[in-house]
TrEMBL record, chain A:
Annotated GO MF terms: CoA-transferase activity
One Pfam family named in its UniProt record: CoA_trans
Similarity comment: Belongs to the 3-oxoacid CoA-transferase subunit B family.
Keywords (A to Z) from UniProt: Transferase
Keyword Transferase: yes
Record carries keyword Methyltransferase: no
Protein name: CoA transferase subunit B
Length: 217, 233
């Protein structure tokens, strides 16, 4: 089974040379740490920066330079700042190649829910609805089950949706799955996890064809 | 040159009243119009509608207005990290309209640019689109979102001059530019008000035509919400 770092490491392999990438808050933020350093990639943060770098050294924090998680960051050579409207022109206009975000639920038709639990938790959608409505390639990073042990990969989402039919791939602590017309297609198993384990933890339709390889990190 | 300079924050806020709609720049606590917000708290206006990406934290930014129950309605995209906000929202004391962040920016820009409404794919098929007009373009569905109508826009820039020209710094730019000229009156506060002629016209982010009043803020706390650092090797 993978931990959060493991999920981030596996997703980092999906980041290709020449990609502009938007990383959501949580596990997706960790992905930046594990992208190969022999490829050219730029990270976009929707609050208005392209070319995000690592956290600053202590004492060098600048209140005016943060990421979408409101964390202090630095920028790399070639970086740029811009306003929110232009930021979402990059996103809506499909200039960003890959979006990686977290989710509370993903359905087998690619629907995603990640912004609201009615009556309990309302933080808002932030930029997630814009991102999922426009991104050509969306990968969800999440745990396979919730804290109560219930599957987060469902036939239909039960929570209010963030977007419809948009998720292409899901990487969890147990597996890598592709969203297809027929359901979740199992691509890879996490180390030490069997197909049976994944079946038990998946409520939505799971397609298993042939031998399922263990993922390499 | 048309002079937009006012002496201080109280002069800048002349005309604000109860039940008005305000736009406020900022992302989290980054680039918020601190001086204008503090003055709004002091004036004790009530029944306000605030258009702002976030709602501050409990004891800073818009959280100060929330704490005094001055806000009737918030229009935002993300309101986490603010307990008082969540309490007022869940108890029904505060009316909240949550909208996608890109839609928030574009509804400001539409108001600034003379568009009555825009079509966006964001929120299609979700509760955000309920009751709204939708339309298909080239096989994809879009939601019609209307331009905001606001009485005042309060924005914060790094440098400005008496002509109202503005330059922003880093990610403190965020929603501020799209809000300039998007309300009946735009009030810009700047960290540094420089003599006219010293800003390079090539480097101006927002031309003064979008700004009605400008002043240099007395102080800036510029609080950091999430201080994240790495260790030196």
């Amino acid at each position: 089974m993978l931990d959060k770092t493991g999920i981030a490491k596996r997703i980092a392999k999906e980041v290709k040379d020449g990609y502009y990438v938007n990383l959501g808050i949580g596990i997706p933020t960790l992905v930046a740490n594990y992208v190969r350093d022999d490829i050219q990639v730029e990270f976009q943060s929707e609050n208005g920066v392209l070319g995000m770098g690592p956290f600053p050294f202590e004492g060098e924090e600048d209140a005016d330079i943060i990421n979408a998680g409101k964390q202090t960051i630095t920028t790399l050579p070639g970086a740029s700042f811009f306003d929110s409207a232009m930021s979402f022109s990059m996103i809506r206009g499909q200039h960003v190649h890959l979006t990686i975000l977290g989710a509370m639920e993903v359905a087998e038709n690619g629907d995603i829910a990640n912004w609201k639990i009615p009556g309990k938790m309302v933080k808002g959608m932030g930029g997630a609805m814009d991102l999922v409505a426009s991104a050509e390639n969306i990968i969800v990073a999440m745990m396979h089950t919730n804290k109560a042990g219930e599957s987060k990969l469902l036939k239909r989402c039960s929570l209010p949706l963030t977007g419809v039919g948009c998720v292409k791939k899901v990487v969890t602590n147990l597996a890598v799955l592709e969203v297809t017309d027929k359901g979740f297609k199992l691509l890879e198993r996490a180390p030490g996890i069997s197909v049976e384990d994944i079946k038990k933890a998946t409520e939505g339709t799971l397609i298993v064809e042939g031998d399922i390889p263990e993922m390499s990190l | 040159m048309i002079n937009k300079k006012v002496a201080n924050v109280s002069e800048a806020l002349i005309g604000v009243q109860d039940n008005m709609t305000f736009m406020l720049g900022g992302f989290g606590l980054c680039g918020i119009p601190e001086n204008s917000i503090n003055e709004l708290v002091k004036l004790n206006l009530k029944g306000l509608t605030c258009i702002s990406n976030n709602a501050g934290v409990d004891d800073f930014g818009l959280g100060l207005l929330l704490h005094k129950k001055q806000i009737k309605k918030m229009i935002s995209s993300y309101v986490g990290e603010n307990d008082e906000f969540e309490r007022q929202m869940l108890s029904g004391e505060l009316d909240v309209e949550l909208i996608p962040q890109g839609t928030l920016a574009e509804r400001c820009r539409a108001a600034q640019s003379g568009f009555p409404a825009i079509y966006t794919p964001a929120g299609y098929g979700t509760e955000v689109a309920e009751g709204k007009e939708t339309r298909e373009f080239d096989g994809k569905m879009y939601v019609l979102e209307h331009a905001f109508k606001a009485d005042f826009a309060f924005v914060k820039a790094w440098k400005g001059d008496a002509a109202g020209n503005l330059i922003f710094k880093g990610t403190a730019r965020n929603f501020n530019p799209a809000m300039c000229g998007a309300a009946k009156i735009t009030v810009a506060e700047v960290e540094e008000l420089v003599p006219v002629g010293t800003l390079d016209p090539n480097q101006i982010h927002i031309p003064g035509i979008f700004v009605q009043r400008i002043f240099q803020g007395e102080t800036y706390e510029k609080r950091i919400e999430q201080r994240t650092v790495r260790q030196r090797d």
